[in-house]
Design brief:
Layout (H helix, E strand, L loop, with lengths): L1 H25 L4 H12 L11 H21 L2 H7 L1 H25 L4 H12 L6 H7 L6 H27 L9 H37 L1 H21 L4 H12 L5 H25 L3 H6 L1 H25 L4 H10 L5 H12 L5 H16 L1 H6 L1 H5 L21 E4 L3 H12 L4 E5 L2 H9 L4 E3 L5 H6 L7 E4 L4 H14 L4 E6 L5 H7 L3 E4 H16 L4 H20 L11 H6 L1 E7 L11 H4 L7 E7 L2 E3 L13 E7 H12 L2 H4 L2
Parallel strand pairs: 1-2, 1-4, 2-3, 4-5, 5-6
Antiparallel strand pairs: 7-10, 8-9, 8-10
Helix pairs in contact: 1-2, 2-12, 3-11, 3-12, 5-6, 5-8, 5-14, 6-8, 6-16, 8-9, 8-15, 8-16, 9-10, 9-11, 10-11, 14-15, 14-17, 25-26
């Protein structure tokens, strides 16, 4: 009977989620908010379609464990190291500042005790990753400096949830019979050390065993083996004194080292999505809509306080992490919300009597409101950032050198660093404008002049000397920021040469209209490089490859300007290959032609002429037939395409050609 009741409740949860999720998607609202609202509607405080939320909480806890399992599966510690100061300094300070302000405010009003106030501060300190990332993606801001700053802090917060949950029992101590703080901390320490030891051993053993297992038993049985590992590690970690969620996190770290990580992710992903949605629905069931009706101003005031407190505390935290003022402001607004992991902490704290009654109702209501406000708060970022400086003047000099005839490189990622290095090696003066402090440090270590500034503001570009620059190379991945940089550079220097890198070919014409002289779309240039390498591997002459690449570029960019344009007749590769052409062949020591004379090679049998030979920079035209060819010589071959291919094979020493 209990099973049938549970299945009925589960059916109500899933059925009610679909229409609410549909409406929220139409309104472009976060799906997490949709699940929370679903729980409010069908819960015991509203329609009572599910009378006992406890029946769903068991599955919700499993959902939490799977969420943390996937956090471990991605193993973001290596990513944290790459993100550097933003994640470690900015993330830690943001959480401390937000928790401290919230705790102090609650204590000042005297509404709760010290432990409850500190717990509320911990709930507020965590921001949403799942809600903010899609919003930033829809605005093409994931690759922007502010997007990267947000990602670093959010990644740190996701990891910080694990020790916070482990330390909650120490916060919940009360009464004479409760164990001391030292005892709790000792238990937590033993659990953490035991889990770390287990992970350390399993990480070197389990992946090797699983990878050998999948080779013997096949991928079908790998899923069962991964599930056994997951459940086994969860059981061992619980035996060590930690929670099942901690065990799932540890299992994720272990399985992340397996070569079959893609199979693990694809197997568990559907269960993660379903069970995590049940978790948020179960949280929504705890909320009483009557509380919102009785205290609308309290809920609204709480939401305003959270957004303001988190934004105002995140800004100085990011500035201390050396973020540029404009970037710090926009990233701070992305952090001004209550995150999904706050509900995970709330669930753990509820069991320890740290959150109950009206406090629980207020938290859920405020959290839902802040999540719904995410798109609107983020959209206010550009207007706010426009009022702030572009340059980190506390780290950089206010005045710059009077540079002239130099190249300004915007961004010091992979592309920017390569451009700056090559320009430096060729003797061209270069200055880099970079908004990320860690990348600016990398440029300094490489000996490249750099300004820690946001290039989307005119101040940083003027300090870089764009007015007197010879060229500007824009390498940042954010398309909207690239367009703004191009417009600013063109408005300050009408004669500067502007070259822009972009990811997508659809951005080309808009960047040109903004003032770019050349735009290099990565997706198209990658296809060009693939074509060139395929043709080279087939021994297509270099001049034909260059011609075909020119044709592809002309046709593609012409189609951008005129979608109805057709390729010109007679310019296809097949026609070019059929025509007579020429090619240059460098003779290497291992080639069969080295040491032989042209007379011995009999290239005329392939209908190929050799009108010239280049040796030590001196052309021999025509080359003597009785002089041995030396390694390092370059032969000029003339003939049809197919004949040139056969002749090249003979020069290289192909068995099929040498036998002829």
């Amino acid at each position: 009977m209990h099973g049938s009741v549970f299945l009925r409740d589960l059916a109500w949860v899933l059925a009610a989620s679909l229409p609410v999720l549909f409406v929220f998607r139409k309104l472009k609202a976060p799906s997490i908010a949709a699940f929370l609202v679903t729980g409010m509607i069908i819960g015991p405080h509203a329609l009572a379609l599910v009378e006992d939320p406890a029946r769903v909480s068991g599955i919700a806890e499993l959902g939490v464990a799977l969420i943390l399992f996937f956090v471990g599966l991605e193993f973001p510690l290596s990513r944290l190291k790459a993100l550097g100061r933003t994640a470690l300094v900015g993330g830690a300070l943001q959480m401390v500042f937000a928790a401290g302000v919230t705790t102090a405010t609650l204590l000042a009003f005297g509404v709760v005790g010290a432990r409850e106030a500190l717990f509320a501060g911990l709930l507020v300190s965590v921001s949403s990753t799942a809600v903010v990332l899609p919003v930033l993606a829809s605005r093409d801001e994931l690759g922007s400096p502010s997007g990267k700053q947000f990602l670093g802090v959010a990644l740190f917060q996701d990891l910080a949830v694990i020790p916070l949950i482990l330390l909650l029992p120490a916060l919940a101590l009360q009464g004479a019979g409760a164990p001391g703080t030292g005892a709790v901390l000792t238990k937590v320490g033993v659990a953490v050390l035991g889990s770390a030891l287990l992970v350390g051993i399993a990480r070197f053993v389990v992946p090797r065993v699983l990878d050998r297992f999948v080779r013997v038993a096949g991928p079908e049985t790998f899923t069962a083996a991964a599930l056994v590992v997951l459940l086994g590690i969860v059981a061992l970690v619980e035996t060590a004194g930690a929670s099942a969620a901690m065990g799932a996190f540890a299992a994720g770290i272990v399985l992340a080292e397996s070569e079959s990580i893609a199979d693990v992710s694809s197997t568990f992903a559907p269960f993660r999505d379903v069970l995590s949605s049940l978790f948020f629905v179960s949280v929504g069931m705890l909320f009483d809509l009557g509380f919102l009706a009785k205290h609308p101003f309290l809920v609204l005031g709480g939401a305003v306080f959270v957004v303001g407190a988190k934004g105002l505390t995140a800004y100085p935290a990011l500035r201390l992490a050396r973020a540029v003022p404009k970037t710090a402001a926009r990233a701070a607004l992305s952090l001004a919300n209550v995150g999904e992991f706050s509900f995970v902490i709330a669930l753990a704290g509820g069991k320890l009597a740290l959150l109950a009654g009206e406090g629980q109702q207020l938290f859920v209501a405020v959290a839902v409101v802040t999540i719904l406000l995410v798109p609107f708060v983020i959209s206010a970022g550009p207007a706010l950032a426009a009022r702030l400086p572009d340059v980190a003047t506390d780290r950089e000099p206010v005045t710059s050198e009077l540079r002239r005839g130099h190249v300004v490189v915007v961004g010091y990622g992979l592309n920017g660093s390569n451009v700056a290095r090559v320009l430096g090696e060729t003797g061209l003066r270069t200055v880099v404008v970079e908004a990320d402090a860690d990348r600016a440090d990398n440029a300094r270590r490489d000996g490249v002049p750099v300004l820690l500034a946001d290039a989307t503001g005119v101040e940083g570009l003027l300090m870089a000397g764009v007015v007197r620059a010879r060229a500007v190379v824009v390498t940042i991945p954010d398309p909207s920021a690239s367009r703004k940089v191009v417009r600013l550079c063109r408005s300050r220097n009408a004669d500067v040469r502007i070259i822009v890198r972009t990811r997508y070919i659809r951005e080309v014409e808009e960047l040109r209209r903004a003032g770019a002289d050349e735009v290099i779309p990565e997706e198209f240039e990658t296809s060009i490089e693939i074509v060139a390498r395929v043709l080279r591997s087939l021994h297509v002459p270099g001049n034909l490859i260059a011609t075909q690449i020119r044709v592809l570029r002309d046709e593609t960019y012409r189609k951008l300007r005129d979608p109805l344009a057709r390729p010109e007749a007679g310019r296809r590769l097949s026609a070019l290959m059929a025509a007579g052409t020429s090619d240059l062949v460098l003779i290497l020591p291992e080639m069969a032609a080295a040491g032989k004379t042209l007379g011995e090679l009999h290239l005329e049998e392939q209908h190929v002429a050799v009108p010239a030979l280049l040796r030590d920079g001196v052309p021999l035209a025509p080359p003597p037939l009785d002089v041995p060819i030396e390694a390092g010589d370059t032969l000029l071959l003339v003939g049809a395409h197919e004949d040139l291919v056969h002749a090249t094979r003979r020069l290289e020493g192909s068995a099929s050609e040498s036998s002829e």
